[in-house]
Amino acid sequence: MRTSTMISLCYSSTFKAFPSSLYSLTSDFFPLQPKSRNFVSLKESSFPGNSISTKRRSLCVVSGSKSDNGFQESSFQGAESFFRSVLASMETVYLNRNPTAKAILELVQSVDGEQICYDHLAFRTFGVNGYGIDSMAKFFLDFGYTPREELRFPAKKLKALWFSPPSVSLLDDGSGVNGPLPRVFISELLVDQMGTQTQDIIRKYTEISSGGNKHAALASAIGSLTWGKPIYSEFQQLARESEYAAWTLVNGYALNHATISTHRLKSHLRNIKSLNQFIEDNGFKLNSEGGVLKVSPDGLLQQSSTVADSVSFQFSDGITDLVPCSYIEFAERLVLPQYTNIPEREVKEFHRRDGFEVGNADKIFESTSKEQLTRKAA
Question: Which among 65, 62, 12, 78 has a CA at the least distance from the CA of 169?
Answer without folding.
Answer: 62
